[in-house]
Specification:
There is one protein chain. It contains two helices and three strands. By secondary structure, it is an alpha+beta fold. It has a three-stranded mixed sheet, with helices on one face. Helix 1 runs antiparallel to helix 2. It starts with a helix and ends in a 28-residue tail after the last strand.
């Protein structure tokens, strides 16, 4: 669990280089993480300034969500899926475009190596 918390804290902290962009805005912080017996990881993200949705387009929402999901899968291979919660509740979507009402799997099409 500590490994997953560290991965998400680093992701939420953003890049150390000014040449890179952050996947997640600073108003998002990590609430808590729980892993059940089936390997499903529940991640509660706390959004300050609670509104209907963050003002993201579909591309930004996909990158934000899968930066979390893919980072967890890459660093903790024993997990089965990830459920994202927003302020303690599982929502149908984070910004109106991507279905987050179900457990999510890594999306290898969004990962590139150099």
């Amino acid at each position: 669990m500590a490994q997953m918390e560290r991965v998400l804290e680093e992701l939420l902290a953003g890049p150390v280089s000014e040449d890179l962009l952050t996947a997640l805005p600073p108003e998002i912080t990590l609430g808590w993480i729980h892993v059940n017996e089936e390997g499903v990881v529940y991640v509660d993200l706390e959004f300050s300034g609670e509104g209907a949705h963050p003002a993201w387009g579909s591309h930004h929402e996909m990158l934000a969500v899968f930066s979390i999901v893919n980072s967890l899968f890459a660093n903790t291979p024993e997990i089965d899926s990830v459920v994202l919660l927003r302020n303690g509740q599982q929502r149908p979507t984070f910004a109106g475009h991507l279905d987050t009402s179900r457990p999510l799997l890594a999306d290898s099409q969004l990962v590139t190596t150099r």
